[in-house]
Amino acid sequence: MDPIRASLPPGAPAVETRPGLAAAVAAVLAEAQGLEAPAPAAAVVAARSEAAGRQASLAPVLANLERALGSPAVPAAVKAAIGQVLALQTPTDAPITAETLKQAVSRSGLFREARLASGEPAPMDLKAALLTLQQVLAPTTPRAANRPQRPGPPPPTPGGALSGQAPAAATLDADAEPAVLVHHLRGDVEQALARQTLHQLASLPDGPGAHWMFELPLATPQGPAVAQFAIDREDTRGADPDGPAAWQARFSLDIPPLGPVHVSLRMDGERTAVTLWAEEPGSLERLRSRGGELAGVLAGDVVFRTGSPRPSEPPPGRLVDRRS
């Protein structure tokens, strides 16, 4: 069964997929689980190239969806589907606990195809909600034409630099004609789904160990924002087959009043090391003032730096952001 089709409610019309997209996405995490379903190289390349040309920032999409809820021209069915997407944002007006973060990761959409392949019940997640909204917007009409990308983060690639998306303002004209609103929202959703696909492709196994890349939408008082994450589990079997796994978690976010902040946390057995970068000097001082508390919670060393992590050179054959 087409995994994209399986993500939709019973009775929903079929979704048109790009060449190679379904085959590549179906194998994203199935291979990571040890299933005999390696992602065809040609399908991965085709899906990555297609999605890279369509992807755009998620934060402006969420802002437009919020504005669409207030438009009388938007049908009730569309508003209901929009509500499912917006409900998956993580609020920032209260402390974010470990359980809150765990649920947010589970609903990020990254693991949907793996769950479907293993026969697990797949709960509503961000990808499923976007697919449902895509169908409600235009279930029987052709796919929206490509449109110029907004300025935004580069396509995600394994080992690449992370970038949080600051709270975004809506660009949707809520007073436009219904057909114009639907066309605009349809394009937004397609671009958001393309970025989801790129994160899934960036999570494909590539040698020993494992890695995952995903984004979490955040609901801030200033508007929708997005945090980007990368989690890596290193293969330690060569050095010590019985030793604990080494983990590295990185994430970036850009929310007021801190601005862009980047975090790298490494856990190697009982040892934990954290590095925080803040691009605004005032924010660095605010974070440093809580350094003792953070070091106590994590039982490790915390290092504070100004600026952002030094990006690594992209591996051969990976996507490169060539915008100027």
Core attributes:
single chain; 324 residues; alpha/beta; seven-stranded mixed β-sheet; 35% helix
Give an overview of the whole structure.
By secondary structure, this protein is of the alpha/beta class. It has one domain (3-306). The chain has eleven helices and seven strands. A seven-stranded mixed β-sheet has the order 1-2-3-4-5-6-7, sandwiched between helices. Strand 5 and strand 6 (271-278) form a beta hairpin. Helix 8 packs antiparallel against helix 9 (178-202). The radius of gyration is 20 Å and the shape is globular. 38% of the residues are buried. The model is unreliable at 1-26 and 28-38 (pLDDT under 50).
- Please bin the fraction of helical residues: 25-40%
Number of strands: 7
Strand arrangement in the largest pleated sheet: 1-2-3-4-5-6-7
How many individual helices? 11
Mean pLDDT: 79
Overall number of domains: 1
Q: How are the SSEs ordered, and which strands pair?
A:
Elements: H1 3-6, H2 21-26, H3 41-52, H4 58-69, H5 76-86, E1 90-91, H6 98-106, H7 112-118, H8 126-137, H9 178-202, E2 210-220, E3 223-234, E4 246-255, E5 259-268, E6 271-278, H10 281-288, H11 291-298, E7 301-306
Parallel strand pairs: 1-2, 6-7
Antiparallel strand pairs: 2-3, 3-4, 4-5, 5-6
Helix pairs in contact: 3-9, 4-5, 4-9, 5-8, 8-9
